[in-house]
What we know:
Layout: H1 2-18, H2 22-50, H3 57-60, H4 63-96, H5 102-123, H6 142-154, H7 162-169, H8 175-187, E1 191-196, E2 199-204
Antiparallel strand pairs: 1-2
Amino acid sequence: MQETFFEVFFSLTRLFLCTKDEVLKDKLVEKTKELFIHHLQGSTLRAEAKFPAGALARLEAPVDKLAKQEEHVAQCVPRILKMIDGLQELIEILIHLKLVDLSPALLAQKNLLRFQGEIIDLVSPKSKKTPPQGSTLRVDNFKYSSQAILDYLKTKPEGVQAIEIVHDFKTKLSRRTIQRYLNSLISEGLIKKDRVNGFPRYFPN
Length: 205
């Protein structure tokens, strides 16, 4: 997770350097700093909960203290996920207003999605999920979501609009989240986006 986090940090730094609006630049710095601090706090708490200082410290540490540490870790996770969403929204604004180059923006979004997926995997129960049968797809986690969208597009050589994907997946994922997955798949060269009759459609590569 630490490696992915630093990839997030460096891609956000690169994005900052090419942002053309000073106000939004400051906003990006503020949100990046907030994410960095909360992640650092969460990592420290996780380390303390797993490896207290001293060989006998774990045995000597009061149960309530360890419970409080684990509770603090659990509280950090939703905050960090919310911060990731906030950064994704800001990047989408920068892309929409054409205030950044597309390549570093998509890279930052991709790294944020990877980091978000690793956090979700960390706190979720470890269980294998079997993709359901039938035409209706249900998506429950980051890794399956991205792959499921790619597999879905491979069955649609004529291409589909984003709204069709949202409708067919019948999932808790919002259209905005699905759009992030699509942007990530485009940046990886796995799918392409073309306009048909004036409307954007997504095709498998």
